[in-house]
């Protein structure tokens, strides 16, 4: 097949959906298909870029169109790029805030329809609307209602042949809008380095028990770290264990500082690594057994950080603000991540959880391709 992927941005390392798109498109090339990628609202360039990007040894043709350009001009360039490539499919990798800074792209459906004329379309919903939780403010709920209307209208305008999403909750929400979607699990954007050997403990570390916890990527607001840090400190003293918190990636500065200050106030050690290359992240991950997720448990299926920790076989605990989906009954939460409650840290360290299921980009690309070819 020939496929052109449409997304908002393709700046490497700065846009999770762009990184996902690049890796999926490159893997499809590896598997014998023909792929290209087109960013329609790129915040990281002021001029058109027409060239290639590399992903794990594969060169992917890309065109990047600046956010600041008028949509009419961007559509003209995009239409020519698509016509020149002449794909069998267009794949829209959709994040509503990627196409408008307030997540309100009122004309997006009709604009994209101009690109999709005469071509089959697949949509991957990476995100839906805000205000989905019972606990969210009334403002966010109204904001979400508008976004929900825009999504429904866009799907009606575009009439996609295939719709995917990577979260079970999103499948249920789309079904309520009358949109039939398939579940396509998330793969990690951190390549598995099979030649990386986990670093063994030194004699001094074995004599003084050490537990290392890692937070990777965003730390979400509203997470109460105080109770958790206090409990970790008490456990460390009770078991004569040194417990170290490692912060890796582009964390929210304010939340990161709060975590560091709170953690250190209980006499615990912190290691701040900041942003690293994918290869460095892989090497760092190889020495960790315990990960912390701050995404609400109901939404961890769409978290790139969680997908990465799953891929490296970490045992995970979820520390997040209260978040319960509104209007959805009998929703099954992931059972391979422990949701933190007071007193559960020792359980997390000592008990086994059900085995995580991690998906490789190769597996997902095959499933993606099959869904398109069988349609």
Write structural notes for this entry:
- With 375 residues, this protein is α/β, with parallel strands linked by helices.
- Helix content is 36%, strand content 21%.
- It is built from twelve helices and 14 strands.
- The strands form two sheets. An eight-stranded mixed β-sheet has the order 3-4-2-1-5-6-7-8. It has a six-stranded parallel β-sheet with strand order 11-10-9-12-13-14, with helices on both faces.
- The longest helix is centred in the middle third of the chain and has 21 residues, at 138-158.
- It is globular.
- Residues 196-207 have low confidence and may be disordered.
Layout: helices, strands, pairs:
Layout: E1 2-7, H1 16-30, E2 34-42, E3 49-55, E4 58-66, H2 71-85, E5 89-94, H3 108-116, E6 120-125, H4 138-158, E7 162-165, H5 168-176, E8 182-183, H6 203-207, E9 210-216, H7 226-239, E10 242-248, H8 253-265, E11 269-274, H9 278-285, E12 290-293, H10 304-311, E13 315-318, E14 337-339, H11 345-350, H12 361-373
Parallel strand pairs: 1-2, 1-5, 2-4, 5-6, 6-7, 7-8, 9-10, 9-12, 10-11, 12-13, 13-14
Antiparallel strand pairs: 3-4
Helix pairs in contact: 1-12, 2-3, 3-4
Strand order of the largest sheet: 3-4-2-1-5-6-7-8
Q: Name the structural class.
A: alpha/beta
Task: Bin the strand percentage.
Answer: 15-25%
Helices, by number, come to: 12
Instruction: Report the helical percentage.
Output: 25-40%
| Oligomer type | single chain
C-alpha end-to-end distance: 13 Å
Q: What is the overall pLDDT average?
A: 90
Overall form: globular
Low-confidence stretches: 196-207
Secondary-structure element pattern, one letter each: EHEEEHEHEHEHEHEHEHEHEHEEHH
Count of DSSP strands: 14
CA-based gyration radius: 22 Å
Largest sheet: 8 strands, mixed
């Amino acid at each position: 097949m020939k496929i052109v992927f449409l997304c908002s941005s393709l700046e490497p390392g700065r846009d999770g959906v762009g990184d996902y798109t690049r890796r999926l498109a490159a893997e499809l090339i590896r598997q014998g298909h023909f792929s290209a990628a087109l960013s329609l609202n790129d915040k990281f360039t002021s001029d058109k870029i027409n060239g290639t990007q590399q992903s794990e040894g594969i060169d992917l043709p890309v065109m990047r169109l600046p956010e600041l350009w008028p949509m009419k001009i961007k559509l003209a360039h995009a239409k020519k790029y698509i016509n020149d490539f002449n794909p069998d499919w267009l794949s829209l990798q959709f994040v509503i805030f990627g196409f408008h800074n307030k997540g309100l792209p009122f004309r997006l459906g009709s604009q994209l329809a101009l690109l999709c004329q005469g071509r089959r379309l697949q949509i991957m919903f990476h995100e839906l609307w805000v205000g989905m939780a019972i606990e969210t403010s009334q403002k966010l709920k109204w904001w979400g209602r508008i976004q929900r209307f825009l999504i429904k209208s866009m799907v009606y305008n575009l009439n996609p042949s295939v719709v995917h999403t990577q979260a079970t909750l999103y499948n249920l929400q789309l079904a309520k809008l009358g949109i039939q979607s398939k579940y396509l699990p998330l793969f990690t954007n951190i390549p598995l380095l099979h030649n990386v050997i986990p670093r063994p403990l030194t004699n001094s570390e074995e004599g003084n028990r050490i537990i290392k916890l890692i937070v990777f990527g965003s730390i979400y607001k509203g997470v109460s770290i105080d109770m958790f840090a206090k409990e970790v400190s008490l456990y460390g003293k009770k078991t004569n264990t040194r417990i170290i918190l490692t912060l890796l990636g582009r964390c929210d500065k304010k939340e990161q500082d709060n975590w560091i200050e709170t953690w250190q106030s209980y006499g615990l050690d912190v290691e701040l690594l900041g942003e690293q290359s994918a290869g460095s992240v892989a090497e760092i991950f190889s020495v960790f057994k315990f990960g912390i997720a701050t995404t609400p448990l109901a939404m961890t299926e769409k978290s790139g950080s969680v997908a990465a920790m799953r891929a490296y076989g970490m045992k995970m605990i979820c520390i997040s603000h209260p978040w319960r989906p509104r209007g959805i009954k009998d929703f099954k939460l992931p059972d391979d991540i422990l949701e933190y409650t007071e007193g559960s840290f020792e359980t997390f360290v000592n008990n086994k959880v059900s085995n995580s299921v991690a998906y490789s980009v190769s597996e997902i690309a095959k499933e993606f391709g099959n869904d398109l070819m069988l349609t």
